[in-house]
Amino acid sequence: MAKLMYRDAIxxxxxxxxxxxxxxxxxxxxxxxxxxxxxxxxxxxGIWSTSTGLYDAFGADRVIDTPISESAIVxxxxxxxxxxxxxxxxxxxxxxxGVCMDQLWNQIAKFRYMFGGKxxxxxxxxxPCGAGYNAAAQHSQVIHQFVTNMPGLKVVMPSTPEDxxxxxxxxxxxxxxxxxxxxxxxxGMSGEVSDDPDFCIPFGHARLxxxxxxxxxxxxxxxxxYAEAAADELAKDGIGCDVIDxxxxxxxxxxxxxxxxxxxxxxxVVDEAPPRCSLATDIAALVASKAFASLKAPIExxxxxxxxxxxxxxxxxxxxxxxAKVAAAVRQTLxxx
Length: 337
Hints:
The chain is α/β, with parallel strands linked by helices. It is built from twelve helices and 14 strands.
């Protein structure tokens, strides 16, 4: 085990997979260096420093700087994947998914189905996402609610450095297209990471981050840390919560969610997206339809409001879920006896 930051776990995993498999390549804006630097030891490896050193190790044929054109990046990734490569493409900000929606929605997500399983498209599309940096409405959004709704895509939301490593390696080795969502606020997070070069975390298997008998809190990505903080605070008052880290939203580990709710009888879903047609409403509907008899209280959803992400620090703080909001939602469910 080694202690790594989230961004370093991502970079190291890509490096190891490029060493292992010559078909793996990287493309995106500034992935060669960034900030006007083309490779070299001083290069930061993009604005998130997740590709530092790759160009020096693997060269221009496998580490490709692209124009500022998300449609071209994802389209090129699709072509590379269909031609037998295993591209890892980076969209610098997930907010610009709209520019490449046709490539995702009508092409990458559909190839295997349209060709009867005879064609695979093993592309990984990495997308930094999320608010918390006062980056305003166009550089702060989450997009998991959109891509989870696209049949044919696998959607990953790692919450820890170790999960970033194991899930990314699984994504690169997977024969289906994977949307890999990295919350920008997690890049500086440190944690223990397996040094096994074959360490993978299978998709569709949630992680029980905390255990308790009083309530079930479900979250993914950055929201897992908020759920854990709320559970730790509630534990001081003798309230025990299961905290379920989904890891992937497609496939979704329904069994772990339902098994927990059958024990606790209370569900709180934490989601950074606005509440309409969201992951929160999806999980609430799942539990309401398949575990209704187990519920002891109405389902609570802690989400962003149905507004754009605000710029002002105070407004952004009010906009986002927080540990305090999660704890309040748990206490609300416990008011029903």
